[in-house]
Amino acid sequence: MSADVINHCKQAMEKRIKGFENELKLVRTGRASITILDPVRLDYYGTPTPLNQVATLTTPDARTIVIAPFEKRLIQDIEKAIMIADVGVQPTNDGNVVRLPFPALTEERRKDIAKSLKKMAEESRVGIRNIRRDVNEDIKTKEKNKELNEDDSRKLQADVQKMTDQFIKQVDDKLAAKEKEVMTI
Is the pLDDT of residue 36 over 90? Predict the structure, then answer.
């Protein structure tokens, strides 16, 4: 039973970390990153389709993404889908490909991005702590109902705390790496 509690806790915290990683992927850092286009969907024969399934995405340099559609007729649809997704970059096309030029970030904008990164990290930490609280309440309830003895309850709560500390450290490490990426030119 104690393994079930720990596994449930670990899975919930891992899910929260994955969510944080996905949020970080969508943050613009001044560098061209194809992951910023993950939320872009376009209508392809009546089906909302991810951009990477109807075009080749490349980054020829650090500040440009080039989107080469498999069918030339999709160029207008791709531009429209990017505008709707509001990725923060104005697409241009030359009739063959769509280009997304990423302007260099100003120092002020970098600081704003860093501030929003800290807010996202704090939300993730709070989410992890909420999971810890819920699991600890579950452990205490099981102790009250005599499903666990006091020693096992304390040990489980200590294990949950260790796991919480590990996952919060992961959030901090990922935040530090992303901040460094944003703040470097």
Answer: no
